[in-house]
């Protein structure tokens, strides 16, 4: 492999400076108490060209030697029943499952429970945050999107992409989901191997991949940024919507995603423990990312128009109204600069819905018990997921 050296190449760009001095980056610094600088840049930069080699070897040994369906069945057996060194299986498979079946010394299931409860009790705010801040905000980083473009994610459609993200997120954030062999653990391992499969396919078939600028496809540093989206950015979004968050819940959220990241093969020293660390890590990563390009705009608009394409809501006026509400939340959460770059439509009274939501959340948090909110949030989130899976698993839906 060529030896690339990486610099914080966009640190003097307007989009980087504006984000960190007056945009959401500034708010993240204020929110987290982070101290941002470039002194640790050299420590993180090599991970732009680093990948999950263990996952890649499993894909080569299992998925590339038989039919995809047969390979998936084989991996499911290991996920659900475990593996030992005496089993007849490729060395790569033994290595992967030896790592993921071994609990790291720092793992605290009580903290994971607190993080899962925050995800559940935040109800639809959680799903709005994932969609209108974490996902669409990620599209503003042009190089981060390149694997999506290379694997033709736009052709697959936003409904399917959203359904897959929701399925993963819901299943790793329920009670006990991340215990070895349980559902969340299964989703983490399968997602890890999907990443490896996509990476190897890109390297084989996508001849225009620009490793020097874009890093390795689905590299470890980009993976870190993605999972900071699920922890730091998600937390900031709930905060923006007026949710009260306890210290244990906040710690728990970072702990939950640290463990998911560990299962996904992200190097442990890239997984932040708290919002201060996460903001400092994120600052360094954003300095190597240019702002939106034409692919970013296409991805953002595909997600916005998902509400119009999705047949969960029966009537056209309902779908248009849902799209309008998501646009309002996107402006509220992402801010004007990013929304203008992504060409998010400007709509009238766009602060009305998010501000009302914020007021209602404060009243709801103060008057309804935490247990009742967790129970209702879990039920409502599961209902949304069921609706999406029903639509996307219907063979007539494209």
TrEMBL record:
Q: Which InterPro entries does the annotation name?
A: Lcp-like, MPAB/Lcp_cat_dom
Protein name, entry field: Latex clearing protein
Q: Which GO terms describe its molecular function?
A: oxidoreductase activity
Residues covered by the ER-bound oxygenase mpaB/mpaB'/Rubber oxygenase catalytic domain:
147-346
